Amino acid sequence: MKLVLAIVGNDDSGMVSAALTKEGFSVTKLATTGGFLKKGNTTFIVGTEDDKVDQVISIIAGQSRRRTQLVPSTTTMDIGVYSAFPVEVTIGGSTIFVLNVDRFEKV
Amino acid sequence: MKLVLAIVGNDDSGMVSAALTKEGFSVTKLATTGGFLKKGNTTFIVGTEDDKVDQVISIIAGQSRRRTQLVPSTTTMDIGVYSAFPVEVTIGGSTIFVLNVDRFEKV
Amino acid sequence: MKLVLAIVGNDDSGMVSAALTKEGFSVTKLATTGGFLKKGNTTFIVGTEDDKVDQVISIIAGQSRRRTQLVPSTTTMDIGVYSAFPVEVTIGGSTIFVLNVDRFEKV
Ligand code: NI
Ligand code: NI
Ligand code: NI
């Protein structure tokens, strides 16, 4: 038995949660205050058999991998003309810790 | 030293917290958002000596074990007659992970 | 790789967070409801290389070690005279668990 502790940005946490649940994993979400990702994040606790750790990591990565995105950006010039151009920003990214479980009980 | 991480339904978390504290265990409760139990739950962190893990699990189980309860249920029939009869529902249930502690410090 | 789980009183959690971040550690803070410290506390998750565990513990201890402080205290006497005298109170104190990380992924 392993415990997967994953820190997922809030933009992706809904999709991560849905994807894990759909595949039959029990997911507990902890409210996170602040954190090392700028926008706030959610900490997931997922208990799983050893041989499904790869699948859990793959699901989390699939829904939250660090990626770039083009977003509109606006610059105002002196003469009152607006110029909107796309800027590439990096979003997403998760940090995943896998811990050994010494004992597991469901009561 | 072990760290017990227990996910307890909110119906039972007050009793679990009180029972652990009464027996002298240090309890930290994490706010949990959503989760695999329907009604919301609380994640407990309890640090304990190896030989007291059984006691911690027994206390948590004693206050939160999955159990059935009869609740009133109402059915309305066509002819305007109400029938209230008890329905058996399952409540409670906790998930408990025990982790090895590599090092423990109180400062 | 180690995961440091530290429960820090809310009086000190801002300083602990700032000091860890300044030294380059990735810090995740979990909202804690109640707990074994009277005033509420914050649970920190810090992932770190094995050889930096001492540094992490030292930073946390340096900002949150249990200590005494003199605070003003006021007694009102029968004859309407106030006497303000300092009282020594204990503040701070953190509980730190270090866990082995079986696998670590940043995606
Ligand atoms: Ni196992
Ligand atoms: Ni031990
Ligand atoms: Ni290591």
Explained architecture:
Three copies of one chain form a homotrimer. Chain A is of the alpha+beta class. Chain A has a single domain (2-100), classed as 2-Layer Sandwich (Alpha-Beta Plaits). Helices cover 23% and strands 50% of the residues of chain A. Chain A contains two helices and seven strands, in the order βαββαββββ. In chain A, the strands form two sheets. Chain A has a four-stranded antiparallel β-sheet. A two-stranded antiparallel ribbon of chain A has the order 4-5. In chain A, strand 4 (67-76) and strand 5 (82-91) form a beta hairpin. In chain A, helix 1 (10-22) crosses helix 2. The longest helix of chain A is centred in the N-terminal third of the chain and has 13 residues, at 10-22. The first copy, chain A, is elongated. Chain A starts with a strand and ends with a strand. In chain A, 38% of the residues are buried. The model of chain A has no long low-confidence stretch (mean pLDDT 88). Chains in contact: A-B, A-C, B-C. Chain A binds chain B through residues 1, 3, 17, 21, 26-31, 42, 45, 47, 99-107, and chain B through 2, 5, 7, 30-36, 41, 43, 53, 57, 60-61, 64-66, 93-100. The structure holds nickel (II) ion (3 copies). One nickel (II) ion is lined by residues 1-2, 50, 101 of chain C. Chains A, B, C: Keywords: Receptor. Chains A, B, C: This is Cyclic-di-AMP receptor. Chains A, B, C: InterPro entries: CdAMP_rec, N-reg_PII-like_a/b, N-reg_PII/ATP_PRibTrfase_C.
